[in-house]
């Protein structure tokens, strides 16, 4: 009996081993719950769509992709725990994530130390890829996004702008810094700089202070949760100037909470579902068929991050960390959903930004800005 049991266990173990050998394991960490859940859920849907497509066409190197997705709950401390598990327990060959820069900055040193390539879909803070040569991103970075919005504000003829920054988010602090530098450089005046912290609910003190100075616009580089509340309170206080922001505004609850408070405001992002290019429209239709909704730029970036990893695995012909890192770093003119993506020497994507206007309860394409 004992011999039979050992034989059964050995057979089961062999089967498990063979099953694992037929898979390429990739880890994904995202904010599926918590304050940034809209970002994480959307990015995950785009990532999953890419993985499903890859597997439906035979996978990579004769194997299927196994995507292990973990929820970091939008909470500090979770990304490090999850990525350590990915590497020590799940034996992933690469990591995809996160949207929020602070979460990526927590996970990146662990991936770098273990020589596991990590691709962030949407972390725009420059510090993310400065962690090391195994860390990549498929989005543009804050200096570009902040400078684009500063130039856009001045193209509208606005010369006096206030800034309201979330000091708890590296993303917001970075964007504010580069906006202020760009706006001042071209003769603009920052009439007031105020701050808040993620999770705050009452912004009347900051907005009242700004209102007395009569800014022509307010730059608000935060995330959609606080931005929607700030917009509502600004309108209640009688502030009529437009609000300006970055890709952190993208979230399905932004307009549900803000209502028409953001009409006439603008923000930069990576993608517009209104883009008529065949690549974008094909993605929109595939995403809608699978998820029953129009994709936002987080979904498009999630898709692009998974596809760039897939292309690198094919080019490398292996999942060996060093060779895979080299193949990702060599990414050039990748036909992504968010534009043609080339990774520069700092492992940042070079590609255009899109500026959207909020009007009539939706987002309208305003203009594209090249690097």
Number of strands: 15
Biggest beta sheet summary? 7 strands, mixed
Fraction of residues in helix: 40-55%
Q: Indicate the overall shape.
A: globular
Amount of beta strand: 15-25%
Query: Helix- and strand-based class?
Result: alpha/beta
How many whole angstroms does the radius of gyration measure? 22 Å
Q: Please provide the ordered H/E string of secondary-structure elements.
A: HEHEHEHEHEHEHEHEHEHEHHHEEEEE
Q: Can you count the helices?
A: 13
Low-confidence blocks of residues:
1-19
Mean pLDDT: 92
Tell me what the structure shows.
By secondary structure, the chain is of the alpha/beta class. Helix content is 46%, strand content 20%. The chain contains 13 helices and 15 strands. The protein has helices at 2-21, 37-56, 78-90, 101-113, 127-130, 142-155, 170-185, 204-211, 224-236, 254-258, 278-291, 297-316, 321-329; strands at residues 23-30, 64-71, 94-96, 118-120, 135-137, 160-166, 189-196, 217-219, 243-245, 266-269, 334-336, 339-343, 349-350, 353-359, 362-369. The strands form three sheets. It has a seven-stranded mixed sheet with strand order 7-6-8-9-10-14-15, sandwiched between helices. A five-stranded parallel sheet has the order 2-1-3-4-5, sandwiched between helices. Strands 11-12-13 form a three-stranded antiparallel sheet, covered by helices on one side. Helix 2 (37-56) packs parallel to helix 12 (297-316), helix 3 (78-90) runs parallel beside helix 4 (101-113) and helix 6 (142-155) crosses helix 7 (170-185). Mean pLDDT is 92; it is low at 1-19.
